[in-house]
Structure of Concanavalin A-like lectin/glucanase:
Amino acid sequence: MLTTLALALLATSTTASPTKRQTQVRTKNYSGAKLLSSPDGTIFTYATTIINVPDTQFVSAEGSPGQLQASAAWVGYGGMEDNGIAQTGCVFDNDGQDDRYARCWTEFYPDPPVFYDDLPSPDIGDWIQLELYLTSPTTATSIVTNTNTGDQASRDFTAPDGHSVSGNNAEWIVENPGARNNLVNFQKEFFEGCQAVTQAGNSYGPGDGNVEVFYEAKDLGDGNGATQWTNSFLPSDSEVEVDWTGPT
Protein backbone atom coordinates (compact mmCIF):
# COMPACT_ATOMS: atom_id res chain seq x y z
CA MET A 1 0.00 0.00 0.00
CA LEU A 2 1.57 3.27 -1.11
CA THR A 3 -0.76 5.49 0.85
CA THR A 4 -1.53 5.71 4.55
CA LEU A 5 -4.83 7.56 4.90
CA ALA A 6 -4.37 8.80 8.45
CA LEU A 7 -1.66 11.43 8.65
CA ALA A 8 -0.26 12.07 12.09
CA LEU A 9 -0.43 15.84 12.30
CA LEU A 10 1.99 16.62 15.08
CA ALA A 11 2.64 20.36 14.84
CA THR A 12 1.52 23.33 12.77
CA SER A 13 2.44 26.94 12.20
CA THR A 14 0.55 29.38 9.98
CA THR A 15 1.28 32.48 7.95
CA ALA A 16 -1.62 34.34 6.37
CA SER A 17 -2.53 36.96 3.78
CA PRO A 18 -5.98 38.26 2.80
CA THR A 19 -6.31 35.70 -0.02
CA LYS A 20 -3.80 32.92 0.70
CA ARG A 21 -2.63 30.92 3.68
CA GLN A 22 0.28 28.49 4.01
CA THR A 23 0.33 26.13 6.97
CA GLN A 24 3.43 24.08 7.78
CA VAL A 25 2.38 20.60 8.91
CA ARG A 26 4.66 17.98 10.43
CA THR A 27 3.77 14.38 9.54
CA LYS A 28 5.17 10.87 9.81
CA ASN A 29 5.05 9.97 6.14
CA TYR A 30 4.09 12.89 3.87
CA SER A 31 5.99 15.80 2.34
CA GLY A 32 4.80 18.24 -0.30
CA ALA A 33 1.67 20.34 -0.57
CA LYS A 34 -2.12 20.11 -0.50
CA LEU A 35 -4.38 22.79 -1.94
CA LEU A 36 -7.22 22.56 0.56
CA SER A 37 -9.99 23.94 -1.65
CA SER A 38 -10.50 25.72 -4.94
CA PRO A 39 -10.67 29.51 -4.83
CA ASP A 40 -13.75 29.46 -7.09
CA GLY A 41 -15.69 27.15 -4.76
CA THR A 42 -16.14 24.23 -7.19
CA ILE A 43 -14.49 20.82 -7.09
CA PHE A 44 -11.27 19.83 -8.82
CA THR A 45 -11.66 17.50 -11.80
CA TYR A 46 -8.11 17.48 -13.23
CA ALA A 47 -4.68 17.67 -11.62
CA THR A 48 -1.23 17.43 -13.16
CA THR A 49 2.48 17.91 -12.55
CA ILE A 50 5.86 16.91 -13.97
CA ILE A 51 8.23 15.15 -11.55
CA ASN A 52 11.89 14.19 -11.78
CA VAL A 53 13.21 10.65 -11.32
CA PRO A 54 15.68 11.21 -8.47
CA ASP A 55 19.13 9.74 -7.98
CA THR A 56 18.26 7.90 -4.76
CA GLN A 57 20.84 7.13 -2.09
CA PHE A 58 20.55 4.29 0.41
CA VAL A 59 20.17 5.47 4.04
CA SER A 60 22.38 3.36 6.30
CA ALA A 61 20.67 4.80 9.40
CA GLU A 62 17.49 2.99 8.35
CA GLY A 63 18.84 -0.43 7.46
CA SER A 64 21.46 -2.67 5.93
CA PRO A 65 22.10 -3.25 2.21
CA GLY A 66 19.62 -5.74 0.84
CA GLN A 67 16.69 -4.13 2.62
CA LEU A 68 14.44 -2.20 0.27
CA GLN A 69 14.04 1.56 0.73
CA ALA A 70 11.74 3.73 -1.34
CA SER A 71 10.05 7.06 -1.88
CA ALA A 72 6.92 7.76 -3.89
CA ALA A 73 5.93 10.98 -5.67
CA TRP A 74 2.33 11.43 -6.74
CA VAL A 75 -0.56 13.75 -7.57
CA GLY A 76 -4.02 13.06 -6.24
CA TYR A 77 -7.24 13.99 -4.48
CA GLY A 78 -8.69 13.02 -1.13
CA GLY A 79 -7.22 12.12 2.23
CA MET A 80 -8.46 12.76 5.72
CA GLU A 81 -11.41 14.77 4.40
CA ASP A 82 -12.67 11.78 2.40
CA ASN A 83 -12.63 8.03 2.88
CA GLY A 84 -10.39 7.39 -0.11
CA ILE A 85 -7.54 8.80 -2.18
CA ALA A 86 -7.30 8.82 -5.98
CA GLN A 87 -3.67 9.12 -7.02
CA THR A 88 -1.09 8.40 -9.69
CA GLY A 89 2.68 8.60 -9.43
CA CYS A 90 6.02 6.82 -9.39
CA VAL A 91 7.86 4.91 -6.69
CA PHE A 92 11.66 4.92 -6.51
CA ASP A 93 13.32 1.83 -4.98
CA ASN A 94 16.87 1.26 -3.75
CA ASP A 95 18.15 -1.86 -1.97
CA GLY A 96 21.61 -0.51 -1.17
CA GLN A 97 23.25 -2.96 -3.56
CA ASP A 98 22.82 -2.92 -7.30
CA ASP A 99 19.05 -2.63 -7.50
CA ARG A 100 17.70 0.87 -8.14
CA TYR A 101 14.60 1.25 -10.25
CA ALA A 102 11.47 3.34 -10.74
CA ARG A 103 7.93 2.14 -11.38
CA CYS A 104 4.81 4.16 -12.12
CA TRP A 105 1.41 3.26 -10.72
CA THR A 106 -2.14 4.36 -10.03
CA GLU A 107 -4.28 3.71 -6.99
CA PHE A 108 -7.70 4.33 -5.50
CA TYR A 109 -6.96 3.86 -1.82
CA PRO A 110 -7.68 1.66 0.08
CA ASP A 111 -7.26 -0.63 -2.92
CA PRO A 112 -3.60 -1.57 -3.53
CA PRO A 113 -1.60 0.16 -6.28
CA VAL A 114 -1.74 -1.09 -9.86
CA PHE A 115 1.58 -0.70 -11.67
CA TYR A 116 1.98 0.33 -15.30
CA ASP A 117 3.61 -2.83 -16.58
CA ASP A 118 3.18 -1.54 -20.15
CA LEU A 119 5.33 1.53 -19.40
CA PRO A 120 9.12 1.08 -19.55
CA SER A 121 10.88 1.87 -16.30
CA PRO A 122 12.12 5.48 -16.42
CA ASP A 123 15.77 6.35 -15.92
CA ILE A 124 17.36 8.62 -13.33
CA GLY A 125 16.99 12.19 -14.56
CA ASP A 126 13.89 11.55 -16.66
CA TRP A 127 10.89 13.82 -16.21
CA ILE A 128 7.48 12.20 -15.84
CA GLN A 129 4.20 14.00 -16.43
CA LEU A 130 1.38 12.80 -14.19
CA GLU A 131 -2.22 13.60 -15.14
CA LEU A 132 -5.28 12.63 -13.14
CA TYR A 133 -8.88 13.19 -14.20
CA LEU A 134 -11.56 12.78 -11.54
CA THR A 135 -14.56 11.76 -13.62
CA SER A 136 -16.85 11.08 -10.64
CA PRO A 137 -16.42 10.60 -6.87
CA THR A 138 -15.65 6.93 -7.54
CA THR A 139 -13.97 6.89 -10.97
CA ALA A 140 -10.78 8.41 -12.34
CA THR A 141 -8.45 8.27 -15.33
CA SER A 142 -4.68 8.58 -15.07
CA ILE A 143 -2.14 9.31 -17.80
CA VAL A 144 1.60 8.91 -17.24
CA THR A 145 4.06 10.23 -19.84
CA ASN A 146 7.84 10.03 -19.87
CA THR A 147 8.65 13.40 -21.42
CA ASN A 148 12.20 12.27 -22.26
CA THR A 149 11.25 9.17 -24.25
CA GLY A 150 7.63 9.84 -25.22
CA ASP A 151 6.47 6.59 -23.59
CA GLN A 152 2.90 6.94 -22.35
CA ALA A 153 0.27 4.79 -20.66
CA SER A 154 -3.21 5.45 -19.32
CA ARG A 155 -5.69 3.66 -17.12
CA ASP A 156 -9.28 4.05 -15.92
CA PHE A 157 -9.78 2.98 -12.33
CA THR A 158 -12.58 2.77 -9.79
CA ALA A 159 -12.88 3.20 -6.04
CA PRO A 160 -13.45 0.12 -3.90
CA ASP A 161 -16.99 -0.34 -2.63
CA GLY A 162 -17.97 2.20 0.01
CA HIS A 163 -15.13 4.62 -0.76
CA SER A 164 -15.00 7.87 -2.73
CA VAL A 165 -13.30 11.25 -3.00
CA SER A 166 -15.02 14.63 -3.12
CA GLY A 167 -12.55 16.52 -5.31
CA ASN A 168 -12.45 19.34 -2.77
CA ASN A 169 -8.63 19.28 -2.60
CA ALA A 170 -5.61 18.48 -4.74
CA GLU A 171 -2.24 17.14 -3.56
CA TRP A 172 1.37 16.96 -4.77
CA ILE A 173 3.11 14.56 -2.41
CA VAL A 174 6.34 12.71 -1.63
CA GLU A 175 5.45 9.73 0.54
CA ASN A 176 7.26 7.25 2.69
CA PRO A 177 5.43 4.14 1.41
CA GLY A 178 3.57 2.44 4.22
CA ALA A 179 4.89 4.98 6.77
CA ARG A 180 7.63 2.52 7.71
CA ASN A 181 11.27 3.26 8.53
CA ASN A 182 12.31 2.66 4.93
CA LEU A 183 12.38 6.10 3.32
CA VAL A 184 15.17 6.38 0.76
CA ASN A 185 17.25 9.54 0.37
CA PHE A 186 15.69 11.04 -2.76
CA GLN A 187 17.89 14.17 -2.53
CA LYS A 188 15.47 16.53 -4.29
CA GLU A 189 12.00 15.93 -5.68
CA PHE A 190 10.58 18.61 -7.95
CA PHE A 191 6.94 19.05 -8.92
CA GLU A 192 6.90 21.40 -11.91
CA GLY A 193 3.87 22.83 -13.69
CA CYS A 194 1.46 21.94 -10.90
CA GLN A 195 -2.13 22.63 -11.91
CA ALA A 196 -5.53 21.72 -10.54
CA VAL A 197 -8.48 22.53 -12.80
CA THR A 198 -11.95 23.00 -11.38
CA GLN A 199 -15.39 22.07 -12.59
CA ALA A 200 -15.81 25.74 -13.49
CA GLY A 201 -12.78 25.54 -15.79
CA ASN A 202 -10.36 27.58 -13.71
CA SER A 203 -6.77 26.45 -13.16
CA TYR A 204 -4.90 26.89 -9.89
CA GLY A 205 -1.48 25.98 -8.57
CA PRO A 206 -0.72 24.92 -5.00
CA GLY A 207 0.26 28.48 -4.13
CA ASP A 208 -2.96 30.05 -5.41
CA GLY A 209 -5.06 29.37 -2.31
CA ASN A 210 -5.04 27.93 1.17
CA VAL A 211 -2.36 25.24 1.21
CA GLU A 212 -0.83 22.85 3.71
CA VAL A 213 2.90 22.29 3.22
CA PHE A 214 4.02 18.98 4.71
CA TYR A 215 7.42 18.01 6.07
CA GLU A 216 8.41 14.66 7.57
CA ALA A 217 9.92 14.08 10.99
CA LYS A 218 10.85 10.63 12.28
CA ASP A 219 12.12 8.99 15.44
CA LEU A 220 14.45 6.03 14.86
CA GLY A 221 14.21 5.00 18.50
CA ASP A 222 17.86 5.77 19.16
CA GLY A 223 17.16 8.09 22.06
CA ASN A 224 17.69 11.25 20.03
CA GLY A 225 14.00 11.93 19.51
CA ALA A 226 12.31 12.95 16.28
CA THR A 227 14.36 14.77 13.66
CA GLN A 228 13.28 16.52 10.48
CA TRP A 229 13.93 14.36 7.41
CA THR A 230 12.46 16.55 4.68
CA ASN A 231 11.85 20.20 3.90
CA SER A 232 9.04 21.28 1.58
CA PHE A 233 8.40 24.67 0.05
CA LEU A 234 6.79 26.40 -2.93
CA PRO A 235 9.37 28.10 -5.22
CA SER A 236 6.40 29.58 -7.10
CA ASP A 237 2.62 29.24 -7.14
CA SER A 238 2.90 26.32 -9.61
CA GLU A 239 5.91 24.51 -8.12
CA VAL A 240 6.58 22.30 -5.11
CA GLU A 241 10.06 21.25 -4.03
CA VAL A 242 10.85 18.61 -1.41
CA ASP A 243 14.45 18.35 -0.18
CA TRP A 244 16.03 15.55 1.84
CA THR A 245 17.38 16.79 5.19
CA GLY A 246 17.65 13.45 6.99
CA PRO A 247 20.61 11.20 7.80
CA THR A 248 22.77 9.45 5.24
